[in-house]
Design brief:
This protein has twelve helices and no strands. With 307 residues, the protein is mainly α. It comes from Rubellimicrobium thermophilum DSM 16684.
Length: 307
């Protein structure tokens, strides 16, 4: 065979193989994207589109047309009070959740408590952090409500009347205690990787330099963990601020907070105003988005040390 023809044949085969390889790579790339396609569908259908619908509805009139009245009506004293109570409930549940959750996680990760408790604690935290809504409200009503198990037991066996001491489950304090059931486990799940990231060399170096355990925590560990802790608090604040089902099932209209006021506006009552409800929801979105943005920024800062 002529050498020139052989070279042309080999070149054609090589071009064909390269074309097939490029097509195979393109097909493999598309196949890899198919794995995350449900995620994008979920985000678009249940996050982006509902958010856009709320934003548009906040600037629409009931009969049609555009208006800023819904946003301006957020200045009503009842709405301001509802936001303020929601912020207080979210702040205190986030603060207590951070303190208690950090102590529990540090006990099994750093402070010498039996490490066999770690896996059961993390497993329970994974379940409890998602236990909310009507089941959680019913559990607390059955346990700490006016006729709850613990309430009646303390009254009959020890003569302790929680009601006389000012305890009321259907109040902001009761809501904070209820929220702690899922706030503490969520804190444990988030802060445990950060605690695992504390290197033993840092503690040993501090001990070699003569630092006590208290000085190590005050000067080394806590400054490193502080962005993570503050970020966790921001995330817990957003988690509590956006909780709707638990608050409605527990207190109903007895407590004036933003989620309950939002529910009253959009459920279709005679006095309800869906577009004002969209404005309320837009305000909640802005607050939770700010808290989540703070969490993401602080987490990025903390990861620089913990890598």
């Amino acid at each position: 065979m002529h050498p020139f023809k052989t070279d042309r044949t080999m070149a054609a085969i090589s071009d064909s193989l390269r074309l097939r390889a490029s097509r195979w790579k393109a097909g493999a790339g598309m196949a890899r994207w198919l794995g995350v396609l449900p995620f994008f569908v979920f985000v678009i259908l249940f996050l982006i589109l509902p958010t856009l619908y709320i934003v548009v509805g906040a600037f629409r009139q009931t009969g049609g047309g555009w208006t800023f009245d819904n946003i301006l009506n957020l200045r009503q004293q009842s709405i301001i009070n509802a936001y303020w109570v929601s912020i207080k409930v979210s702040f205190w549940s986030a603060l207590l959740g951070c303190v208690i959750g950090f102590a529990m996680a540090a006990s099994v990760v750093l402070w010498g408590v039996d490490r066999r408790l770690r896996n059961p604690l993390l497993t329970f935290s994974g379940v409890a952090s998602n236990f909310a809504g009507v089941p959680l409200a019913f559990a607390f009503i059955a346990t700490l409500g006016p006729a709850g198990l613990i309430t009646l037991y303390l009254r009959t066996e020890f003569g302790i009347n929680l009601r006389a001491w000012g305890w009321n489950l259907l109040s902001s304090k009761g809501l904070i205690v209820t929220y702690l059931f899922f706030q503490i486990p969520l804190m444990i799940l988030i802060i445990t990787p950060a605690l695992d990231g504390l290197r033993r060399e840092w503690r040993e170096a501090a001990a070699v330099l003569g630092a006590s355990s208290l000085q190590y925590w005050r000067m080394v560990a806590l400054p490193i963990l502080f962005p993570s802790i503050l970020g966790c608090m921001a995330l817990l604040f957003a988690n509590a601020f956006g909780a709707v089902a638990t608050a409605i099932a527990l207190t109903g209209p007895a407590l004036n907070i933003a989620p309950i006021l939002l529910y009253a506006q959009i459920r279709g009552d005679v006095l309800g105003n869906p577009n004002l409800g969209y404005a309320l929801a837009l305000g909640m979105i802005v607050i939770t988005a700010a808290a989540n943005s703070l969490y993401i920024w602080l987490r990025a800062r903390s990861e620089r040390w913990l890598k």
